[in-house]
């Protein structure tokens, strides 16, 4: 394993306090809903990564607001050996245009109201972000 690898994501809310999430097609979090985001490409700035990944995965054009947090995504196998380690820089983002559509690297994309969210359908990191944003509360 080479790493840790650096990624960027964005917490995007609309005027109804809904958040846009993508359904992951690969690990970590395969089959779960997550914030749109992905890995930094060589020579690309972290903010540019967040903007690019959101548009690729959701069709939305966004304006980044503030840095929201930095999160470690660490996975181990059954023996405790490291499988992956990502450092994800998360920004708050505001939709500025585009049309919500599923990108080729995700199986679905949609807006969620807080009442539709629970920790069984979202990744652990997404849960951390949504709790910090007070969109969901801990059980």
Descriptive notes:
- This protein is an alpha+beta fold.
- It has one domain: Nucleoside Triphosphate Pyrophosphohydrolase (Alpha-Beta Complex), CATH 3.90.79.
- It is 16% helix and 43% strand.
- It has two helices and seven strands; from the N terminus they run E-E-E-E-H-E-E-E-H.
- It has helices at residues 46-58, 124-132; strands at 5-12, 19-24, 33-34, 37-39, 60-76, 82-98, 106-112.
- The strands form two sheets. The chain has a four-stranded mixed beta sheet, with helices on both faces. The protein has a three-stranded antiparallel beta sheet with strand order 3-2-7, with no helix packed on it.
- A hairpin with an 8-residue loop joins strand 2 (19-24) and strand 3 (33-34).
- The N and C termini lie far apart (35 Å).
Summarize the structure.
The protein is 16% helix and 43% strand. It is of the alpha+beta class.
Number of domains: 1
Q: Kindly report how far apart the N and C termini lie.
A: 35 Å
Q: How many strands, which pairing sense, and closed or not: the largest β-sheet?
A: 4 strands, mixed
Give the CATH class.
Answer: Alpha Beta
| Shape estimate | globular
Strand order of the largest sheet: 4-1-6-5
Helix content, binned percent: 10-25%
CATH superfamily: Nucleoside Triphosphate Pyrophosphohydrolase
Give the H and E element order. EEEEHEEEH
**Which structural class is indicated by helix and strand composition?**
alpha+beta
- Annotated CATH topology: Nucleoside Triphosphate Pyrophosphohydrolase
């Amino acid at each position: 394993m080479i790493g840790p690898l650096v990624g960027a994501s964005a917490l995007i809310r609309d005027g109804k306090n809904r958040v846009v999430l993508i359904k992951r097609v690969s690990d970590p979090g395969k089959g779960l809903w997550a914030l749109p985001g992905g890995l930094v490409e060589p020579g690309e700035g972290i903010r540019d990564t967040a903007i690019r990944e959101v548009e690729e995965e959701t069709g939305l054009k966004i304006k980044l607001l503030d840095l929201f947090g930095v999160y470690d995504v660490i996975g181990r196998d059954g023996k405790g050996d490291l499988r992956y380690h990502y450092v994800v820089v998360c920004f708050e983002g505001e939709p500025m245009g585009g049309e919500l559509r599923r990108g080729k690297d995700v199986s679905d994309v949609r807006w969620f109201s807080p009442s539709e969210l629970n920790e069984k359908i979202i990744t652990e990191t997404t849960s951390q972000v949504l709790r910090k944003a007070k969109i969901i509360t801990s059980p």
